[in-house]
Amino acid sequence: MRVMVIVTATRDSPTGAVPDETPYPETGRFNEALVNAGVMLAAEGLRASSKGARVTFAGGRRTVVDGHFSDAKEQVVGLWLWQVKSLDEAIEWAKRGPFSDGTEIEIRQVFEAEEFADELTAGPTGRGNGSSQLSAK
């Protein structure tokens, strides 16, 4: 199963600048262990919210708000995509992570395309048309 591991901001989170590798040797070693175990599929750090925007959809309108967003606790500062056998395995890996006090990590299972086989192959009648290479669950 694939999981996304989401790291949220703390008051000590980087400002979004490209990090100097020197202060993060533990993270480098942790990432290397994930790669060597065949767990890590992707890893990304995100720039500060001041470099982003939010788009809100309400009543048929789209409202754009430029960053900086003050709700730091809900900001994502980084993520991994891992291939693991179970949620328990993902939790064990996450517990080994080199994080400081106050860091919160969320682990969420990723849907696989096969789980949507019927929807992906639906024709105009809403039923599968048999033309997909995916098999229904």
Describe this entry's structure for a reader.
This protein is an alpha+beta fold and 137 residues long. Helix content is 18%, strand content 28%. The protein has three helices and six strands, in the order βαββββαβα. The strands form two sheets. The chain has a four-stranded antiparallel beta sheet, with helices on one face. A two-stranded antiparallel sheet has the order 3-4. The longest helix has 12 residues, at 25-36. The radius of gyration is 19 Å and the shape is flat. 9% of the residues are buried.
CATH superfamily: Dimeric alpha+beta barrel
In angstroms, what separates the terminal alpha carbons? 15 Å
State the strand order across the main sheet: 2-5-1-6
Tell me the β content.
25-35%
The low-confidence runs, each spanning 5 or more residues with pLDDT under 50, are: 129-137
Mean pLDDT: 81
Tell me about the biggest sheet? 4 strands, antiparallel
* Overall tally of domains: 1
Radius of gyration: 19 Å
Q: How is this fold's topology laid out?
A:
Blueprint: E1 2-8, H1 25-36, E2 40-45, E3 53-58, E4 61-66, E5 76-83, H2 87-95, E6 105-109, H3 117-120
